[in-house]
Write a structure and sequence with these properties.
378 residues; alpha+beta; six-stranded mixed beta sheet; 21 strands
Length: 378
Amino acid sequence: MAVTQGCATDIGIMSLSVDIQRSLGGFDLQTAFDAPDGVTVLFGRSGSGKTSIIKSIAGLVTPRHGRISINGRVLFDKSAGIDVPVHKRRLGYVFQDSRLFPHLSVRDNLCYAARVNGRGGRNPDDVGALLGIGHLFDRRTQSLSGGEAQRVAIGRALLSEPDMLLMDEPLASLDGPRKAEILPYLETLRRETGLSILYVTHNMAEVARLATHIVLIDEGRVVRSGAPEEVLTDPDMVRMLGIRDAGAVLSATVAEEPQDGLSTLEISGGRLYLPAVDAPLGAKLRVRILAQDVILSTVHPDGLSALNVLPVRVLTVRRGEGPGVIVQLQAGKDRLLARITRRSADALNIVEGSECFAVMKSVAVSQTDIAVGLQSGL
């Protein structure tokens, strides 16, 4: 979906720097990280301090100590006595609930934000086209579905002309179909506007779909940060990410148009055949492969229904206390994870440095595991 001329603005390369301390009752939040240009996701369990961090950045709560800056512009510095008011921080905030004005129409909600910011640039019609809400302009907000209301809330945040968008679990209150509806708009928003986003979630599917940079938070501290392909395939992070949600994010290119319902994708380690993707030849994609959907074979398998077979090298084998084993694999330039049993690992002699084949069913990858145009570094 294209944006009309003049809607997107070139904000340049943004970098958010955070180094703050604050008491959270059960523990002390002591967090330091940098969020580069792109979509930085703060991920952690509920109660780990994610919302307190994003509210501190927005100016809604005040850290005990520390410093916050965006692109060199200081928003908070305790030692220097700097605490920029919320309305002057130039940050767009999207909450879990839409918080729209119920007495105003969709258009008036958007126009209010455009009128208040006074910075010019985007206009409501452009944002309506970007987020697919133009047809809702004359409706009152009470009549909107949850997904529609959140898109309007995102549009309102955009029209405040922010230097960065802050999104605090914006899909948490939505059911599965509404989440699937709104995720493509978030991808489009980043592609078309170039606006950097700090995104808070404890949903791993959203992390894999949206993140170009990940910051893992546990009890107010940064456990790990980096690119998705590094963080998500780190065996030491599997327990924090969730055993069932652990997996890899691969960069892929559409190599052939769909045939018999399958698209052919090129990755660094070979080809993947996945359910038909609505994207043209040459399109860049991100594909999430769950560790539990990868099986291993020491010989090239024949006579299987699974179409995806990649030659891989074992990098690391992590044995837990239970029957499961996490195996980190190198496939071309990419890394995968496989979750197999200890018994299978022993029987196949799966050890560091061994060569084998990773096998994946095509239908194991759903459309919600495929993102268009949001590869790391884009």
